[in-house]
Amino acid sequence: MAGIFRSIVKARIIKSLQRGTITIAAGANNTQTATITSVDTAKSLLWHLGVETSGGAGGDPSAVRLTLTNATTITATRAGADTNTPASVVAYQVAEYY
User: What is the pLDDT of residue 95?
Assistant: First the structure.
């Protein structure tokens, strides 16, 4: 995976950089979206920057998956949510390259 990352980023200039958070409310709801400024998905990378739960910092980052759904939408999906699941806030970064 690291080799793929290096080959994508090598000698590329960043066109835009967007950061933000997505909040997934407590309970069984396990999907939420964020709207971003339009990017070319073929020239963009999405980074998962970490998760915080209502129980405090240190939520399991593997429990929330991020997807660049389309040019203007990031979808956060929390695994295994039920009525006792605390709220989750996941941070992301999207870089679009020339």
Answer: 98
pLDDT computed for residue 98 by the predictor:
94
SS3 (DSSP) at 23: strand
Distance from C-alpha of 64 to C-alpha of 78, rounded to nearest angstrom: 4
Burial of 98 by CB count in 10 Å (0-12 exposed, 13-18 middle, 19+ buried)?
A: exposed
25-36: per-residue pLDDT in tens? 887 778 999 999
Residue type (1 letter), 68 = L
For residue 40, the SS3 value is coil
CA distance 4 to 49: 19
Amino acid at site 8: I
Amino acid at 72: T
Which residues of the chain, if any, have pLDDT below 50? Answer: none
First to last CA, the chain: 22
